[in-house]
């Protein structure tokens, strides 16, 4: 049986109202709320205000990270949610961000990361037996 250790969701959100993604304060509120809604474990965060428009931010999680980069002049936000453990938490965080920003179009990719399975376990066992 193959198991993914992490789930990585990448989304480009188009048609976002510029007022929702222009100020670093709004980006901070968005990501911090997504962490709470998804019941993730925040370690630290960092945010930056661009001039004249846009903001970027990242939240380091015990589970991995959430990040956003915005171009309000284009109504665009790119979002990255990567979590290890319970994959539903990644979906909850991304769904919250999308629902809050209400884009007119979402281009999303979902990647399972760190696939492990019986073949990897067998390989590791054979290495250990040689030692």
TrEMBL record:
Offer a single GO CC term for the protein: cytosol
Q: Name one GO molecular function term.
A: adenosylmethionine decarboxylase activity
Chain positions with Pyruvic acid (Ser) modification: 64
Cofactor entry: pyruvate
Q: How is the cofactor bound?
A: Binds 1 pyruvoyl group covalently per subunit.
KW Lyase (keyword) present: yes
Site annotation Cleavage (non-hydrolytic): residues? 63-64
Q: In which pathway does it act?
A: Amine and polyamine biosynthesis; S-adenosylmethioninamine biosynthesis; S-adenosylmethioninamine from S-adenosyl-L-methionine: step 1/1
Q: Catalytic activity annotated for this protein? A: S-adenosyl-L-methionine + H(+) = S-adenosyl 3-(methylsulfanyl)propylamine + CO2
| Its EC number(s) | 4.1.1.50
PTM text: Is synthesized initially as an inactive proenzyme. Formation of the active enzyme involves a self-maturation process in which the active site pyruvoyl group is generated from an internal serine residue via an autocatalytic post-translational modification. Two non-identical subunits are generated from the proenzyme in this reaction, and the pyruvate is formed at the N-terminus of the alpha chain, which is derived from the carboxyl end of the proenzyme.
Q: Which UniProt keywords apply?
A: Autocatalytic cleavage, Decarboxylase, Lyase, Polyamine biosynthesis, Pyruvate, S-adenosyl-L-methionine, Schiff base, Spermidine biosynthesis, Zymogen
The catalytic site is made up of: 64 (schiff-base intermediate with substrate), 69 (proton acceptor), 84 (proton donor)
Could you give a single Gene Ontology term from the biological process aspect?
A: spermidine biosynthetic process
Can you tell me which family this protein belongs to?
Belongs to the prokaryotic AdoMetDC family. Type 1 subfamily.
What function does this protein fulfil? Answer: Catalyzes the decarboxylation of S-adenosylmethionine to S-adenosylmethioninamine (dcAdoMet), the propylamine donor required for the synthesis of the polyamines spermine and spermidine from the diamine putrescine.
Subunit details for this protein? Heterotetramer of two alpha and two beta chains arranged as a dimer of alpha/beta heterodimers.
Q: What is this protein's record name? A: S-adenosylmethionine decarboxylase proenzyme
Provide the species name.
Answer: Hydrogenobacter sp
The record lists the lineage as: Bacteria, Pseudomonadati, Aquificota, Aquificia, Aquificales
């Amino acid at each position: 049986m193959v198991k993914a250790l992490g789930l990585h969701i990448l989304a480009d959100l188009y048609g976002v109202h510029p007022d929702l993604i222009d100020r670093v304060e709004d980006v901070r509120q968005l990501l911090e709320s997504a962490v709470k809604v998804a019941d993730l474990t925040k370690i630290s965060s960092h945010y930056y205000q661009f001039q004249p428009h846009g903001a970027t931010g990242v939240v380091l999680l015990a589970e991995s990270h959430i990040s956003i980069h915005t171009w309000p002049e284009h109504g665009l936000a790119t979002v990255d949610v990567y979590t290890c453990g319970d994959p539903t938490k990644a979906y909850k965080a991304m769904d919250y961000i999308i629902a809050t920003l209400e884009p007119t179009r979402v281009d999303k990719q979902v990647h399972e990361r760190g696939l492990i399975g019986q073949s990897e376990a067998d390989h590791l066992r054979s290495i250990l037996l040689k030692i």
